[in-house]
Structures are given as structure tokens and as C-alpha cells.
Design brief:
The protein is mainly alpha-helical. It has 5 helices and 5 strands; from the N terminus they run E-E-H-E-H-H-E-E-H-H. The protein starts with a strand and ends with a helix.
Length: about 180
């Protein structure tokens, strides 16, 4: 769980690249450790991972960012509802991740594949976020059916966005299958 990155502020960060990839999603803010864990487990797709252990590791990763001033922690009296917000210092470019310290250059095919995999993981994280948004609209509608005129356009937009992102995922998966037959 430790890739070394040095951000523009000169701060050395040992940060899990997948955690970084999840939290850099534009709309991903005001989140809990469990939110990040859910996306992490979905992206990892590894049934051997223990959710409680993963949550503890992610919490430690998020605290690193709090200490560096990139995230702000807002504690709650209710257990499990501690939320994290991005600060004005938070910038995708502040979290560069180095793959390794070796001097050998990967082949162009490997670089393209790595780039495609990064995009794929990003789109999957974005899709999870948008699915949550769609589910929230459904929940609000079930609680307040009289708000259908207000909710329906937002729900339709979220659903359309899900379809668009799913299309991007399918395209990248298709490209990856061509690169890796």
C-alpha cells in the first residue's frame, strides 16, 4: 500500500494509488472512509480483502492527507460519520504517484496499457459515485413522491451520465482486450 509521491508543495506522500484515484474524482467530496472503502473494494474486485482491514488502511491514508492540509476532517458524535472534505490546497496534480524507482523505461505498449487502466479505474469510481446519486434520488422520491417534478430531471440526468460513463468503460475495456489479447 505504499507508492511514494511528492506533490507541488514539496510534501512527500506515501499514498495508495487506488485511494488517490478514488478521491481525485471531481464530484467526490464530503465523503466518509466507508465511501472510499466501497469504491476501493469495487475497483479492486478481490474477494479475499477484508472490508474492516481495508477501511482501517484507508482511514490511515486519509489521515496522511489531513496532516498535509489537503483534506479536512469533520468529526461527528455518531460513530462512522466522520467526513472528509477537500481543502483549497487539494489538487489532482498534488498527488503524483511514482510507479517505482527503477531506471528502466517501460515499453510504449505498457505505458498505453497503464494509462488505459488508470482511465478505466477513474471511470469506474465515477460510475459508482453517479450510481449513488441515482439511488439517492430514488430514495427521496420514495419518501416525498410529491417532489417528482423536481427530482425527475435530476434523476434522468444522473442516469444519462451513468450510461455515458458506462460507454467509456466499455470502450476502454475493448481497447485493453486488443492490447492484451
Amino acid at each position: 500500500m505504499s507508492e511514494l509521491g511528492v506533490n507541488k508543495l514539496g510534501l512527500a506522500l506515501k499514498l495508495d494509488p487506488l485511494v488517490a484515484q478514488i478521491i481525485v474524482v471531481t464530484n467526490f467530496d464530503h465523503f466518509t472512509t466507508s465511501d472510499v472503502r466501497s469504491a476501493y473494494l469495487a475497483l479492486k474486485n478481490d474477494p479475499s480483502l477484508e472490508p474492516n482491514k481495508v477501511r482501517k488502511n484507508i482511514y490511515a491514508e486519509l489521515l496522511k492527507l489531513v496532516k498535509k492540509g489537503l483534506l479536512k476532517k469533520k468529526a461527528s458524535n455518531i460513530k462512522g460519520l466522520t467526513r472528509f472534505n477537500k481543502t483549497e490546497l487539494f489538487d489532482v496534480n498534488n498527488l503524483p504517484m511514482k510507479n517505482d524507482n527503477s531506471t528502466s523505461q517501460p515499453s510504449p505498449t505498457v505505458v498505453h496499457q497503464q494509462h488505459l487502466l488508470t482511465k478505466l479505474k477513474h471511470y469506474k469510481a465515477e460510475l459508482l459515485l453517479n450510481i449513488g446519486e441515482s439511488e439517492a434520488y430514488k430514495e427521496v422520491y420514495s419518501e416525498f413522491p410529491e417532489l417528482i417534478d423536481d427530482i425527475q430531471p435530476q434523476y434522468n440526468a444522473a442516469r444519462d451520465n451513468n450510461t455515458r460513463i458506462l460507454g467509456k468503460i466499455k470502450a476502454i475495456e475493448g481497447l485493453l482486450s486488443q492490447v492484451n489479447p
